[in-house]
Amino acid sequence: MSLISPKQNCLILGAGRSGTSLTALLLERGGYHVYAATYPPSDANPLGYFEDQEVNATNDAILAPLHCSLKGRLARMLKQKPRLTLPQAWLLDLKPSQLHHVSLEPTHAQTFKRLFGRMPFAYKDPRFSFTLGALAPLLPENTVYICVFRDAREVAESTRKHAGTYGMILEDEYCFAVWEAHYLCILEHRRRIGGHWLFVSHQQLMEGIGIRRMEQALQIPLDRSLVRKELKRSQARGILPPSIQRLSEQLEDLSTLDTGYSPEPQSTTHKSYSSESSREATSIL
Questions:
Q1: Residue 116: CB atoms within 10 Å
Q2: pLDDT for 218-272, tens place per residue?
Q3: What is the pTM of this model?
Q4: Domains of the chain: which residue ranges?
């Protein structure tokens, strides 16, 4: 663990199977609170998942009306989409135009207020791609959003295999739709709520560039020895659909921005999606 105490809080965003677990591991060893109770390592994640079970369960509860309610199930069935159980909300394919349907019950808000009070935190959950807009007003001002992304073909292959371990059969087309949904919604959150953002590709993590950029952004040292390249098993095959290719290029561009980082807390409070105004997003290092 680092001897330098982190001064920023973090949310780790990105589609599942994209390198978010490695990012959470790096930050946990860097001194962040990542989880109180988590899941054991598995063949899919040999180093562990580094997700807080209460964060996952609460995000699942927030998203449940969109796919577990009678209306939600019927809408997905009519569109011939896979039926998802309560803890499978990370496999949703929401469009940014649907984000205004995501809202908090009082119990959800109370839970996250308590979780966000455990500072400095670095919570990781792919469901944040869809719930961030509703949670933004509860977040401390000195929160950095770290968006991790990976080649959509590798993510689709890994997602399909991981879903197969609990009996789900997903087509490539749906896996690509899930990947696209995560990052389109993340970019919409960035546009709406602003704040400090850091985009890091999986390749940058493997090469160490991403770790250096996180170190500079968060002003803490991170342990590069935690990166184990032999665990990168999925390979990119085939041609990306045009919309996925364009979104991938946009994320790559964001991951090369070098605009500096202000460690001072932001002076303007988070805006919920009910407000038309928003802060301008600041990309960092």
A1: 17
A2: 999 999 999 876 655 556 678 899 999 999 999 999 999 753 343 343 434 455 6
A3: 0.89
A4: 9-283
Single-letter amino acid code for the residue at 189: H
Residue position matching structure tokens 């998203």: 63
C-alpha distances (whole Å) from 155 to each of 124, 151, 170, 195, 206 are 17, 6, 13, 27, 15
Task: Find out whether 1 and 26 touch, Cβ atoms under 8 Å.
Answer: no
Instruction: For residue 6, name the pLDDT band (cuts at 50, 70, 90).
Output: confident
Per residue in 47-63, pLDDT (tens digit) is 889 999 999 999 999 99
Cβ burial, residue 87 (10 Å; 0-12/13-18/19+): middle
**From its phi and psi, is residue 237 left (phi > 0), alpha (psi between -120 and 50) or beta?**
beta
- Taking phi over 0 as left and psi of -120 to 50 as alpha, with beta for the rest, 111 belongs to alpha
Q: Tokens for 148, please give them.
A: 């991790």
- Residues 266 and 195 sit within 8 Å (Cβ to Cβ): yes
- Token pair 């991170």: residue: 222
Distance CA 95, CA 118 (A): 31
Q: What CATH architecture applies to the domain 9-283?
A: 3-Layer(aba) Sandwich (3.40)
